[in-house]
Amino acid sequence: MAMTDTRPTPNLARVAGALYLVIIVAGVWSEGFARASLVVPGDASATAANIRAATGLFQASFAADILMTVSDAALAILLFLVFRPVSETLAFLAAAFRLIQTAILGANLMNQHEALLILDAPTSAFAPGQQDALALLSLQAQSHGYDLGLVFFGINCLVTGVLIYRSGFLPRAIGLAIAASGPVYLTGSVLTFLAPAASGAFAPAYALPLLAESAFCLWLLLRARNLGPRAA
């Protein structure tokens, strides 16, 4: 009697890995380099001056985040297909939480665009300093919206970690690392909303999710060839 093969096809896994790579590169560049070089926390005038002097970079970060969210929506479906043979219920749950995160991040991009609209508006429409302050407030709202999305992504990581661990075709160590990333995202988001003074000290913990997701991405890209059909 032939054994049913529950592993995904190598091509499906590779496409998922390619999308994951786009998400990591676009997200890290946009948030960690582009916006980080422009936004000066607590200094509205310096932030406004930076954005006006490098509007192209600011818009490029917006475009990178759009690319990230579109890729994330596609990845949610592909990972559902990858893990459906492991557990259809858990795979669906993971996809649902990832898509909720993606929807929040996509809608949240309007806060960044709003900051640019405010800075492009005639200065005569604002009291002195008000224009820059409102632009910075929009960017702060975007930052908080990002953390709100990570609440749902944290739950996704917990479920995805279980799926990887149970899959039999992915290293269990990656599953454990992805699962451990869930509490990191959840804790970081909770601190942002409820104890913001402590969120800065917690920031180094995000190195774990970055390493875990990078390992998952690279395995899908480089080791998917090992997912060839089993012998009957």
- Beta strand %: under 5%
Q: How many structural domains in the coordinates?
A: 1
List low-confidence stretches: 228-232
Radius of gyration: 20 Å
Order of helices and strands: HHHHHHHH
Can you give the mean pLDDT? 91
**What kind of oligomer do you see?**
single chain
Question: Terminal Cα separation, in Å?
Answer: 8 Å
Number of helical runs? 8
Shape, please? elongated
Q: State the helicity in percent bands.
A: over 70%
Number of strands: 0
Largest sheet: none
The helix/strand class is mainly alpha
Brief digest:
By secondary structure, this protein is mostly helical. Helix content is 80%, strand content 0%.
Detailed description of the structure:
This protein is mainly α and 232 residues long. The chain has one domain. The chain has eight helices and no strands. Helix 6 (172-194) runs antiparallel to helix 7 and helix 6 packs antiparallel against helix 8 (207-222). The longest helix is centred in the middle third of the chain and has 38 residues, at 130-167. The radius of gyration is 20 Å and the shape is elongated. It starts with 9 loop residues before the first helix and ends in a 10-residue tail after the last helix.
